[in-house]
Design brief:
Number of strands: 26
Largest sheet: 7 strands, parallel
Bound molecules: 5'-O-[(L-methionyl)-sulphamoyl]adenosine
Number of helices: 21
């Protein structure tokens, strides 16, 4: 198949983007880049899911209209992706008029064919999930996700006749082993289907919910969230007549996490079947990231913000860690310590050292010019390098085609380490000592830099910036970037005589505080009376970004007597670690208006990343927070 279409879930706009959203979207970006390297025409879709009660509630809390609120959060997702080097072809919003039109058309089509009917229903409804639960699905009478007792609601609604398609779906899934991957999730869907499938309630009366798409056949109702959301995958490509739809739909790959397996593995194929649309090609399901062994949640305060990590470690290291650490399909644990460990060992040590020592040698022995690769007869070691390169490319390709990202990177790192060993064994510094071995030295160094070209090429899907920097240093013209997979399989593409750039450190080693971070001065530690500082200009003072912030949440930091961990709204949410625990109780701070330095370099205190500093005054051992004498919007700048 010479085309590749990849989608991510469209994310709800009731919460800011976090690690989990970033993971699915990075996967899609990695695949998109990889398939382009394989010479395929690709299309990459992501976006936001904007209708439903949850958005109305979140908007109300902020005193905003649902649309203004959706604009804001959708904007955060859209702005985050380029920061993580994610380049999508289309960012869809379910509030887009073109999407709404498709939803209405498909609903009408299914309604006309008789698979949507009107009926009274009484059932257990979970407001958190925005859906009815059957008795069987509840755990101890509670919603398994929200652990709350659902409310019993009686209501007339529209229903989608899913039960009619149950046998068809079982056969369809069994006939195509690759339809739902990995296999455990296929089995999970088949297990759901062993029980009778209930019809799906697809509407909400407008008396209860207005923030949705009006049913084309009854304007007293809006569609239920899943019918609206799932259709994004076809509306974004211009279903039914759009060129993109015709071109890409047959090769679509959906990427989701296990939380939304049922809607994607059951509702979605049945909706497509009922609407007479070809069934999607593959559903690829990954596990969940937990953080420090706990489920990520706002209330636990352990939500990982991708941008904060990017600021410290760079987008490439973040992407590498996620792809290398998680086994696709299984849950994984995120900890910054694990990221730092991989950063130092895999990136700074194995890859970074290989790159810098290789370039340094070419500069030292050949003035930075790529030597002749056939200057001397090949040894067995040289032949091994070439065959290992091909083997690595094959393994890498197979692993990425099969969504086994960690294996692709393991194969690549095995090659990196083989080249490191090759350098140790061939010892170019010894060869350099004897004029008679100059030709052999040429061959060895050629093999090393040619291997680096292949390594850079294979790194590209996961670490596009690193790959580009390596490519530039190896004299690969920017219009030859990214290299195609075919370019990589042809040994000898790096021309002898090419001038290489001076070496660079790709990944400076870091400690847990991040590279070269200083702990910010703890709040309360300002100098006492009489301690004066040098005079500065107004311009220098203006480089300090002072902002009004409101404290949303405060808690003590375990094992610290001085530190409190605060969540503040400074126009955007931030975590601040402040040394004020001896003067303030956490509960005294909630809702307080404070002043923060917003552009202080993030730093870690007791393992928590602090992205700002609160202004305080210290008087006789008591710490006083700086505040304003009247309310001001969070995020307002101080001048
Ligand atoms: N709006 C629906 C999806 C509709 S798709 C037609 C939705 N949105 S969501 O914002 O809740 O996003 C869920 C998805 O975010 C998961 O399927 C996964 O892709 C990603 N993740 C959210 N939390 C995650 C983890 N903790 N770990 C890994 N990915 C998770 O459901």
């Amino acid at each position: 198949m010479n085309r590749f279409y990849v989608t991510t879930p469209i994310y709800y706009v009731n919460a800011r983007p976090h690690l989990g959203h970033a993971y699915s979207t990075i996967i899609a970006d990695v695949l998109n880049r990889f398939h382009r390297m394989c010479g395929r025409e690709t299309f990459f879709l992501t976006g936001t899911d904007e209708h439903g009660d949850k958005v109305v509630l979140a908007a109300r809390e902020e005193g905003m209209s649902p649309l203004a609120y959706a604009d804001r959060i959708s904007g955060l997702f859209k702005a985050l992706w380029p920061e993580l080097d994610i380049e999508c072809d289309c960012f869809i919003r379910t509030t887009d008029p073109a999407h709404i039109k498709v939803v209405k058309e498909v609903l009408q089509k299914i309604y006309d064919s008789g698979d949507i009917y009107f009926s009274e229903y009484e059932g257990a409804y979970c407001f958190g999930c925005e859906r009815f639960y059957t008795e069987r699905e509840l755990v101890d009478g509670k919603c398994p996700d929200h652990k709350t007792v659902p409310e019993v609601i009686r209501e007339a609604n529209y229903f989608f006749r899913m039960s009619k398609y149950q046998d068809w779906l079982i056969d369809y899934i069994q006939a195509d082993p690759d339809f739902i991957r990995p296999e455990r999730y296929k089995n999970e869907v088949l297990a759901f289907l062993r029980e009778p499938l209930e019809d799906l309630c697809i509407s909400r009366p407008k008396a209860r919910l207005q923030w949705g798409i009006t049913l084309p056949f009854d304007d007293g109702y809006v569609t239920y969230v899943w019918f609206d959301a799932l259709l994004n995958y076809i509306s974004a490509t211009g279903y039914p007549d759009g060129e993109l739809f015709k071109k890409f739909w047959p090769s679509v790959h959906h990427v989701i996490a296990k939380d939304i397996l049922k809607p994607h593995g059951i509702y979605w194929p049945i909706i497509l079947k009922a609407a007479g649309i070809p069934i999607y090609r593959h559903l690829n399901v990954h596990g969940y990231w937990n953080v420090d062994e706990a489920k990520m949640s706002k209330s636990l305060g352990n939500v990982v913000e991708p941008l904060e990590l990017k600021k410290i470690y760079g987008a490439d290291a973040f992407r590498y860690f996620l792809m290398r650490e998680m086994v696709f399909g299984l849950d994984s644990n995120f900890s910054e310590a694990a990221l730092v460990q991989r950063y130092n060992s895999d990136l700074a040590n194995d890859l970074g050292n290989l790159f810098s020592r290789s370039l340094t040698m070419v500069h030292k022995y050949f003035d930075g010019v790529v030597p002749e690769g056939s200057a001397a007869p090949e040894s067995q070691l040289d032949r091994d390098i070439k065959s290992e390169a091909l083997k690595t490319i094959r393994e890498y390709q197979d692993a990425l085609e099969g969504f086994v990202f960690h294996k692709a990177l393991m194969a690549l790192w095995q090659f990196i380490n083989q080249i490191n060993k090759y350098i140790d064994v061939t010892a170019p510094w010894e060869l350099f000592k004897k004029e008679s071995q100059r030709n052999q030295l040429q061959v060895v160094l050629y093999n090393i830099v040619e291997s680096l070209r292949i390594i850079a090429g294979l790194l590209y899907p996961v670490m596009p910036t690193t790959a580009r920097v390596m490519g530039e240093h190896l004299g690969i013209a920017s219009d030859k970037y990214p290299q195609t997979l075919e370019d990589l399989t042809i040994w000898g593409k790096l021309r002898p005589g090419t001038q290489l750039l001076k070496t660079t450190t790709l990944f400076p080693r870091v400690d847990l505080g991040g590279p070269a971070t200083r702990a910010p001065r703890e709040a309360g530690a300002v100098e006492g009376p009489g301690g004066s500082k040098p005079e500065i200009s107004k311009e220098t003072f203006e480089t300090v970004d002072l902002r009004v912030a409101k404290v949303l949440h405060a808690e003590s930091v375990p094992r610290s007597q001085k530190l409190l961990r605060l969540k503040v709204d400074a126009g955007e949410e931030r975590t601040i670690v402040a040394g004020i625990a001896e003067s303030y109780q956490p509960e005294d701070l909630i809702g307080k208006q404070v002043v923060i330095v917003a552009n202080l370099k993030p730093a870690k205190l007791m393992g928590i990343l602090s992205t700002g500093m609160m202004l305080t005054a210290q008087d006789k051992g008591v710490c006083r927070l700086v505040s304003l004498d009247g309310p001001a919007e969070p995020g307002t700048r101080l001048t």
